[in-house]
Design goal:
Largest sheet: 6 strands, mixed
Order of helices and strands: EEEHHEHEEH
Number of strands: 6
Number of domains: 1
Number of helices: 4
CATH superfamily: D-tyrosyl-tRNA(Tyr) deacylase
CATH architecture: 3-Layer(bba) Sandwich
Distance between the termini: 17 Å
CATH topology: D-tyrosyl-trna(Tyr) Deacylase, Chain: A
Length: 158
C-alpha cells in the first residue's frame, strides 16, 4: 500500500463540478492499493499516518501529529500511485489491486483513521475527481506499508 501525505491549510474534492468533501487544516492522503495488500497493510499505514509528526509545535516546525493538533484528513483513492514506468513511457498498473478489493481496503484504511480520532473526509471511489489543495510548508511525505516489501512489490510490477 502506498500513500502520499501532504500537510495542507485547506483542501477539497469535486466530482462533476460538485464539491463532495472539504477540510480546513489537516492532511490530504492519496492512497494506492496494490494486489499484495491486505487488512494488515491498511491498518498499519493508517496507524503510521495518524502518528506521523509533521505539524508544528511552539518549539519545532515538525513535531506533532494530526491527532495531536485535532486536524482532519481528506483521503483520496489513487490507483495511479501503483504505476510502473520501468519499461517505456506508458505506465503499467498491473500491481494495482482489483477495484472491489481496493475499495474494501480503502474503506478499512479510512475506518482505522477514524478510530484514531481523526475526522476523515473522502473522495468518491473510482470517480474522476478534481483535488484542490494548499500544501502547507510544503510538507509532502511518501509512505509504503510495510516498508520492507519494497523489493517484493517491485518484482511483482516488473
Amino acid at each position: 500500500m502506498k500513500a502520499v501525505v501532504q500537510r495542507v491549510s485547506r483542501a477539497e474534492v469535486r466530482v462533476d463540478g460538485e464539491v463532495v468533501s472539504v477540510i480546513a487544516a489537516g492532511l490530504v492522503v492519496l492512497l494506492g492499493v496494490e494486489q499484495t495488500d491486505g487488512d494488515r497493510e491498511a491498518q498499519e499505514l493508517a496507524h503510521k499516518i495518524a502518528k506521523l509528526r509533521i505539524f508544528p509545535s511552539e518549539n519545532r516546525p515538525i513535531d506533532r501529529s494530526v491527532v495531536d493538533v485535532g486536524a482532519a484528513a481528506l483521503v483520496v483513492s489513487q490507483f495511479t500511485l501503483c504505476a510502473n514506468t520501468k519499461k517505456g513511457n506508458r505506465p503499467s498498473f498491473v500491481s494495482a489491486a482489483p477495484p472491489e478489493e481496493a475499495e474494501r481496503l480503502y474503506e478499512l484504511f479510512c475506518k482505522e483513521l477514524r478510530e484514531q480520532g481523526i475526522d476523515v473526509k473522502t473522495g468518491r471511489f473510482a470517480a474522476m475527481m478534481e483535488v484542490e489543495l494548499v500544501n502547507d510548508g510544503p510538507v509532502t511525505i511518501g509512505l509504503r506499508s510495510p516498508p520492507e516489501r519494497d523489493s517484493a512489490a517491485r518484482r511483482l510490477s516488473e
